Amino acid sequence: MNRSSLVLYVFFLLLCSIAAAAGMALCQNQFLFSPGHESITAAFSQFKGTIVGDWNHYGRLFIEWQPALFRAIFFWTIIGLPLVFLIHFIAIGPKDFSHERGEVFYFSSFTRLVHWVAAIFFSLLVLTGLAVVFGKTFGGGSLIRSLRYVHVVSALVFTVDAAVLFLIWVRDMFPAPYDVKWLLILGGYLSKAKRPVPAGRFNAGQKAWFWLSTIGGGFMAWTGYQMFSFGVEAEALRLAAIIHNFLGAALVGFFIIHLYMSLFAIKGSLRSMITGFKPREEVEIMHSRYKIH
Amino acid sequence: MARMKFLCDVERCINCNGCVIACKQGNNIPVGINRRRVVAINEGRPGERSVSISCMHCSDAPCIAVCPVKAIYQREDGIVLVNKDICIGCGYCFMACPFGAPQFPSGQVFGARGAMDKCTFCAGGPVETFSEKERKLYGQNRIAEGKPPLCAAMCSTKALLAGDADVISDIYRKRAFQRGGGAGAWGWDKAYKGR
User: Fold this and answer.
1) A181 touches chain B (CB under 8 A)
2) A54-286: CATH topology
3) Which residue among A193, B17, B20, B170 has the highest number of C-beta atoms inside a 10 angstrom radius?
4) Is residue B188 part of a domain?
């Protein structure tokens, strides 16, 4: 081997080692991408934010509550409340007011019309909503799917109608100090004695039902629209589904209470929403703070 | 019994979207629905990576848990399927899924969603195998034909693997060995912090 080729050889080696060192430096700075450089777990976890997002937030709550809790709440609402009322009906019984001392005009024909439209479509909402909640029991399929569409159409009608009902009744629905007293004696429904009950044109229970069904109904419409249209992020959808279920159970509960009060708790009280008149005695006892004119 | 799994090798995926097209064409998926999608991070920058995502066929699938009508079920080999005759299109499965796998066709009554559609692992659906109804509702049944799913079968770099979990993880483990992690192999940064 001659001298010049040896120099060339050493120079080549030097060049190689500089290149290798540079390459390693680049790799360590993550400037160049080197396959297999990082752990498999780390490689996959980089995608987590993009793919899974913040599922951990409401997604977790949703899959924890939807399989059992929501159905349990609905089940005990539609089984438990009627049971309580059955006991009340047997143990205490309905109130009876005489019509002898005349009647008081309570609901105008327009109010009654708006109320009955709301009543029909709210009942549809409750029934079809429960059909979806307990869809497993009915086997799902086209029956429940059609009921889901009925739910959507009823919601559209009810939302408009409830807004009118809200405007008609809102001025009589603001809380008053005596509402606390009404709540403390549970509206006087625990006895058949005819002691005047502290309530205005509407009692505290009716006021609660009013606010829940109009403002709460608005929330139901809003969350329901999101769940129907899928127009928002998945995370907002999960929150909407959670709100829709809890609020829905509360509304079903108050719906059952309203049914019992209007159909059974006071004899003939359904008539006031048909004819518009309440017995004078009933108004004096059950709505003692209401000034009859 | 074999447990079916997807595994996407992020070192091999080149973001070509071939899997998405293969699935869509081979299964006659309507416009607006992708049973599979490719997610890329750091696009155009060093460390760009992509991964192909569809239904993960979870062992404890949240979609099955939240379905109000029990339309979703899991086969013995782990494949999660939906019964489109039972599904009411409520969308709860979409809310429960961390991967956004459930898809919904639109344009039904009042724009209401139809039955949920998702990756079937090319295993058809709960109707008669190879029937016209199965092909129309769920797509091909390649598992019954003894073939891998379309997406994995056509993957040009073989990044997307599909099949028995034991076989898949074996292939992946061999690849990881051959690529050679050296000092970057799994465990090094845990055992020797900061070196």
Assistant:
1) no
2) Fumarate Reductase Cytochrome B subunit (1.20.950)
3) B20
4) no
